[in-house]
């Protein structure tokens, strides 16, 4: 866990030939409402959040506080009623639906609690799928094998999901999320279906990937033991950001994070 204390949240100063790179995701005053019968639910209310390259951010909060909705807004799976979502400087509102879908496939990797692998395909076929969908067959040989190696899945590459453990299935899902080399990986309760030791292995892997590959990673979780791997923890309540906690200053491990999180929620 030492890397949490030393890990830098923001990769400031990354330059492209055009100048400083825009952050992987910027949310500005984003709001989302849902109708439930006669009631209007304000799931997310005026949230602003920037996640820099290489940052590992966790989103915590009680059930119904708006965490998944926030993640879906960042992924462009849901369009906001107010505010702006920009991925690497591209305003998602300016993209028509079909363009947004293609953009998402290229720039955003998604990981879910339920893995969502295709049951009839092998591990390597599942990982190759985003490249096939994009007509990037040329990239499959160079990317899928090395990624499976890196994630410790090489011996399992020809197995279908039902022959893999939960942790292996989630590693396949993470490989699939990374294969297009996205700017941003969004994970909704990625350890929710796993035992705690396997879940910690997945967290360690996400942490390493954020450091090695400079991906921005946002993880929604209920578990302090998962969030403690992050550089920053965003605490949500009733659709708003209640507090932001920083590794090293506000917490050093799952226990101190849980105490700080509880304190933030109780004092609100
Ligand atoms: N598609 C939808 N239609 C109607 N209401 C919705 C929809 N999606 C979310 N909501 C409502 O918006 C609020 C926020 O939901 P959201 O799923 O974002 O919360 P959450 O913090 O992720 O909860 P959990 O931890 O239980 O997954 C809840 O009141 C939920 O019932």
UniProtKB/TrEMBL annotation:
Gene Ontology cellular component annotations, sorted alphabetically: membrane protein complex; plasma membrane
Organismal lineage: Bacteria, Pseudomonadati, Planctomycetota, Planctomycetia, Isosphaerales
Key word Nucleotide-binding present: yes
Record protein name field: Putative ABC transporter ATP-binding protein
Organism whose genome encodes this protein: Aquisphaera giovannonii
Pfam families from the UniProt entry: ABC_tran
CDD domains xrefs: ABC_MJ0796_LolCDE_FtsE
Domain ABC transporter: 25-263
Record region (Disordered): 1-21
Keyword annotations of the record: ATP-binding, Nucleotide-binding, Transport
Family indicated by similarity: Belongs to the ABC transporter superfamily. Macrolide exporter (TC 3.A.1.122) family.
Example GO molecular function: ATP hydrolysis activity
Keyword check for Hydrolase: no
UniProt cross-references to SMART domains, sorted A to Z: AAA
PROSITE patterns: ABC_TRANSPORTER_1, ABC_TRANSPORTER_2
Matches recorded under InterPro entries: AAA+_ATPase (IPR003593), ABC_transporter-like_ATP-bd (IPR003439), ABC_transporter-like_CS (IPR017871), ABC_transpr_LolD-like (IPR015854), MacB-like_ATP-bd (IPR017911), P-loop_NTPase (IPR027417)
């Amino acid at each position: 866990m030492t890397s949490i204390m030393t890990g830098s949240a923001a990769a400031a100063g990354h330059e492209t030939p055009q100048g400083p790179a825009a952050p992987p995701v910027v949310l500005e005053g984003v709001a989302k409402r849902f109708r439930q019968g006669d009631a209007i639910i304000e799931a997310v209310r005026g949230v602003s959040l920037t996640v820099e390259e290489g940052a590992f951010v966790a989103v915590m909060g009680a059930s119904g506080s708006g965490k998944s909705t926030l993640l879906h807004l960042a992924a462009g799976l849901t369009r906001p009623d107010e505010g702006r979502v920009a991925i690497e400087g591209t305003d998602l509102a300016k993209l028509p639906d079909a363009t947004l879908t293609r953009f998402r496939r290229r720039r955003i990797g998604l990981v879910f609690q339920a893995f969502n692998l295709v049951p009839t395909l092998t591990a390597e076929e599942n990982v190759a799928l985003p490249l096939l969908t994009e007509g990037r067959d040329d990239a499959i040989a160079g990317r899928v094998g090395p990624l499976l190696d890196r994630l410790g899945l090489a011996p399992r590459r020809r197995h279908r999901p039902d022959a893999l453990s939960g942790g292996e299935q989630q590693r396949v899902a993470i490989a699939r999320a990374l294969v297009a080399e996205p700017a941003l990986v969004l994970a909704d309760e990625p350890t929710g279906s796993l035992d705690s030791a396997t879940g910690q292995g997945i967290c360690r892997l996400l942490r390493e990937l954020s450091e090695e590959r400079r991906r921005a990673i946002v993880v929604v979780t209920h578990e302090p033991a998962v969030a403690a791997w992050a550089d920053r923890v965003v605490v949500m309540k009733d659709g708003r950001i209640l507090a932001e906690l920083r590794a090293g200053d506000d917490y050093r491990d799952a226990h101190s994070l849980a105490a700080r999180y509880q304190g933030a929620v109780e004092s609100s």
